[in-house]
Amino acid sequence: MNQHEIIEIITTTETEKEADRIGRHLVREHLAACAQTSGPINSHYWWKGELTTSKEWQCRVKTTVEMYPKVEKAITRIHSYEIPQILAVPVVYSLFSYETWLKAELHLDIGDSDH
Q1: 17 lies in a domain?
Q2: Which of 8, 18, 38, 62 has the highest CB neighbour number within 10 Å of its CB?
Q3: Range of the domain at 36
Q4: What backbone torsions phi and psi does residue 79 show, to the nearest 5 degrees?
Q5: pLDDT exceeding 70 applies to what percent of the chain?
Q6: Quick check: 108 and 4 in contact, CB under 8 A?
Q7: Closest by Cα among 102, 81, 84, 79 to 21
Q8: Is residue 35 part of a domain?
């Protein structure tokens, strides 16, 4: 995977406020170009030996592979969960002008684009 490739990072939180706070922080710090909050969603998972069901909110941010370590560090620092879900999903295709905008918002050198 190329360091400038776009990824979407997904995390879940207990509240909408926390999901919004994480998204705004990542965008404000130019670690992500944009963030969306959605929910509530129903989550089912094993936690400490018990099957658990809870309402959660998702925060989805658009960034690049090279930004992932900083995004992960920021999320784990401000997230309320002991072990937060932090998943990075590759973006296979994107509109060229969107990709250019995203990289500019992250203050990346857009001259290295794969297009």
Answers
A1: yes
A2: 62
A3: 6-112
A4: -75, 145
A5: 93
A6: yes
A7: 79
A8: yes
- What H or E segment, with its residue span, contains residue 9? strand 6-13
Overall average pLDDT of the 18-41 stretch: 98
Whether residue 1 is contained in a domain is answered as no
CATH number of residue 52's parent domain: 3.30.70.120
Nearest C-alpha neighbor of 84 from the set 106, 63, 62, 57: 57
Q: What would the DSSP string read from start to end of 40-102?
A: EEEEEEEETTEEEEEEEEEEEEEEEGGGHHHHHHHHHHH-SSSS---EEEE-----HHHHHHH
pLDDT, tens only, 37-84:
999 999 999 999 999 999 999 999 999 999 999 999 999 999 999 999
Structural domain count of the chain: 1
Q: What is the pTM of this model?
A: 0.91
User: Is a pLDDT exceeding 70 seen at residue 111?
Assistant: no
